[in-house]
From TrEMBL:
InterPro entries: NAD(P)-bd_dom_sf, Sc_DH/Rdtase_CS, SDR_fam. GO terms for molecular function: oxidoreductase activity. It comes from Sediminibacterium goheungense. It holds the Pfam family adh_short_C2. Belongs to the short-chain dehydrogenases/reductases (SDR) family. The lineage of its organism: Bacteria, Pseudomonadati, Bacteroidota, Chitinophagia, Chitinophagales. This is NAD(P)-dependent dehydrogenase (Short-subunit alcohol dehydrogenase family). PANTHER family: OXIDOREDUCTASE, SHORT-CHAIN DEHYDROGENASE/REDUCTASE FAMILY (AFU_ORTHOLOGUE AFUA_5G02870), SHORT-CHAIN DEHYDROGENASE_REDUCTASE FAMILY PROTEIN. Transmembrane segments: none annotated. Gene3D superfamilies: NAD(P)-binding Rossmann-like Domain. The keyword Cell membrane does not apply. Keywords: Oxidoreductase.
Length: 248
């Protein structure tokens, strides 16, 4: 049954940026459903995030499972106010070695699943004439990065979808925006950069602020875009990157 609290879905919310977004939402008293494939990861996240966190296990690349997932959430929670499309996969491989299947697999998870879950959520949001959808883009859509051709294609598609969705849905009360994270600190990125001094120098050389971002920076941006503070903002791709996308 509908609640006075906002209800949010964060895909890929069990770790990384998705976890940071879910954490911020829960701190702000938004009931948050984290969706992911790995039940153990979801359970660990729920334990840390506390009672405002709920989990739903779903492999979003299995597109036919998405309508049922959203129906289950609506049955249990009565409404969906915010959808954060954060789940995504990447693969580093030379352009000529990427197979059709590998390319397609990344597009299915990063683009088609985002479309499919958004479509199902929007059907509900239209009945209430309100809602906020936040897509997670990437620096790979702002400039060219080597060895991530499928990922780059997928994130550029996300930017285009964000604008197209915003134009079509905003007259009906649904705002659609994206966040393009720059280099955000994690044990994995720190290790990767420490083992590759040349790449590390390049990253910091073109980031005017000269430091990596924190996952909480993405959480703050997502909360802003989801909140009434951003009620007149739609169709933007917001870089949260210390200036990386405009750095020289």
């Amino acid at each position: 049954m509908p609640t006075h609290k906002k209800i949010a879905i964060v895909t890929g919310g069990g770790s990384g940026l998705g976890y940071a977004i879910a954490e911020k939402f829960i701190q702000q008293d938004i009931e948050t459903i984290i969706v992911g494939r790995d039940e153990d990861k979801l359970a660990t996240a729920k334990e840390k995030l506390g009672k405002g966190c709920h989990t739903m296990s779903c492999d979003l690349s299995n597109l036919s499972s998405i309508p049922g997932l959203i129906q289950n959430i609506l049955t249990e929670f009565g409404q969906i106010d915010v959808l954060v499309n954060n789940a995504g996969i990447n693969m580093k491989k030379l352009f000529t070695e990427v197979t059709d299947e590998e390319f397609q697999r990344i597009l299915t998870t990063n683009v088609t699943a985002v479309f499919a879950i958004s479509r199902e959520v929007v059907k509900h949001m239209l009945t209430r004439e309100s809602g906020s959808i936040i897509n997670i883009s990437s620096m790979a859509a702002q400039y060219g990065l080597p060895k991530v051709i499928a990922y780059s294609a997928s994130k550029t598609a996300i930017d285009g979808m964000t604008r197209a969705m915003a134009v079509e849905l905003s007259p009906k009360g649904i705002r659609v925006n994206a966040i393009a994270p720059g280099f955000i600190y994690s044990d994995m990125t720190a290790k990767a950069l420490d083992s590759d001094p040349e790449r590390k120098a390049k990253v910091f050389g073109r980031t005017p602020m000269g430091v990596m971002g924190q996952p909480t920076d993405i959480g703050e941006a997502a909360y802003f875009l989801a909140s009434d503070a951003a009620k007149y903002i739609t169709g933007v791709v917001l870089p949260v990157d210390g200036g990386n996308s405009i750095g020289f």
